[in-house]
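Appendix C reproduces, verbatim, an entry submitted by the partner laboratory led by Prof. M.T., so that reviewers can inspect both the input and the predicted structure.
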Amino acid sequence: MGVGIRIEELRKVYVSPPAGSAGGVRFTPLTVRRSREKKKNGEVIAVAGISLEIEAGEIFGLLGPNGAGKSTTIGILTTRVVPTGGQAYIGEYEVRRAPVKVKRLIGVVPQRPNLDFSLTAREVLLFHGAYFGQSAKERARRADELLERFQLTDRADNMLHGFSGGMMQRLSIARAMMHDPEVLFLDEPSAGLDPQTRLLLWDLVRDYNRQGKTIVLTTHDMHEADALCGRLAIIDHGKIIAQGTPGELKSSIPGGYLLRVRFDAVPDGLLGELGKLAGVTEVRAADHTAADIYADRGGSLIPAVVNAAQVAGVALCDVHIQEPSLETLFLYHTGRSLRD
């Protein structure tokens, strides 16, 4: 039947020592990430009351910039990070109360490969299977199957020194699948990979999902989220700012298109005039020389923008048009790039 995930008011706060304390350079993990909310007492809110449900058998994405809280959320769900508050369930098991049972249900691919370089690729899989109680016959069969599926058979008995980044990532995912988990967590699985390897990994993820497995991935790659995820949540500063299917999220943007325009100056009244143009749904000042225009069309609106600028006595210096996308959605909610 598959295994789903439920998160209720999940919070994680890291606390750094006060300035001037002994060992002043020591701090708890993640406390220096600039994009997270900080308090005067040194607290850093990494996850700020997230609630969501992930259905059994779906591919769900957590989309956001570096430092948004995605990896901390995954860390809590995979029992590696202890939450400050709230609850998280993998199937019927609460992660803090039943970590051993949770670990048997999940496979985890970390953001950075943590493979043992003293082993061969085959041994990495065999040892992992042994950890989960697989018999020698079963883990040998399973290892051969995964090495073939992940195109690693010809390097199966080689030490990992000399493996490319793509090969190590494929082996990391194969290892996570070795005990056939019901839920697979992928933390930025295609970061730094070449396009060919990325597409191969996407196909492998889809194949595993077709077996009824639940897959949760974090990414700051909009194309990856759009291509893989049935639903996703966009996270910033430890909070969910939007969630739904990619199509639903993109259609929720007023007008859909975003024109980022820059003038030599933005006099009083120009934004109001731009807002009156046909098809424009919203105009926001970006800074003292720029504005974001949300509209139901893109390039065909530029002549009207140029005319409004001329009437106001300013010059249009630059225009960047974005079609409806997850990036546009993120800009609408936060005012900054998803990759900031």
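The chain has eleven helices and 15 strands. Additional entries are available on request from the coordinating office.
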